[in-house]
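Hi team, as promised in this morning's meeting, here are the two structures we talked about. I've kept the exact order from the run log so nobody has to guess. The first one is mostly here for context; it's the second one we should focus on when we meet again. Sequence first, then the predicted structure tokens.
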Amino acid sequence: MASLNVGNLGEYLREQRRTAQLSLRQLADAAGVSNPYLSQIERGLRKPSAEVLQQVAKALRISAETLYVRAGILDEREREELETRAVILADPSINERQKSVLLQIYDSFRKENGYEPGPEADAAPVTGDASAAEADERPAPDVDDRPAPDADGSRATGGHGADTASKP
């Protein structure tokens, strides 16, 4: 049987399996595929589906996107964009609205540099009381760092060190 043009997917899988110190049978069991089928993939005789690659990647604890690129399912640039989006969405230190805004900024920079927004550009989660479209319509926050006007409309002249405790 002639070898299919699947790049070096089979060699890469074999290398990852050996690095993980798994036998072919152990990886096949962990991925939920048959031992002969996995052997054929490693030898370049079969081109696995994206679903099988995802199962194998999970069993090997590696990125499924990397396997997609090696199998010719996904372009390298698409993989990088998906991984960037995944990292942003997985960051526990920012809330959902901040993630959405950050993804919008990322998309605008990519568009400015001649790249089209990726397939997940419209799938950014938006929670809270405002949608991403509404966020674009809001006025920019006032970045004036001077003290707020007093009741008579004048501003305190003491700068940042002015005593604000005596104000109503």
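And here is the second protein, the one for discussion:
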Amino acid sequence: MGALIYDDSEHPIFIEDRALAHLKVVIATKLRRQESFTLSWRHPEGQPVGRTTIWLHPSIPLRFVFDEPDPPELNADWIERLMHSANTTGGIQLVDEIVEDAPEGEASAQATTS
């Protein structure tokens, strides 16, 4: 389980390493372009029901911490879906990864947050 440390907060945002690696690509791309945007996610099980949104801006400190020492192989389609949501007025919505190699050709969603 990785963590996104936002603005030197004492409360990290815990996100599964694979999802965090994909978010990192999208967030870094947007911030490198000096673009501000929001990031939203539903609260995982074990937390109060709801959702959270944070404002991301190039001047706000942000750190990505991964449990796994090696980066995962990235899914270009998932990055594209996240980037598409980043370019909307609603900002990045942390959506599940679609796994294309599901049985009988059916796509299935893989959980991304905990």
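Starting points for discussion:
The mean pLDDT is 85.
Residues 17-32 form the longest helix (16 residues).
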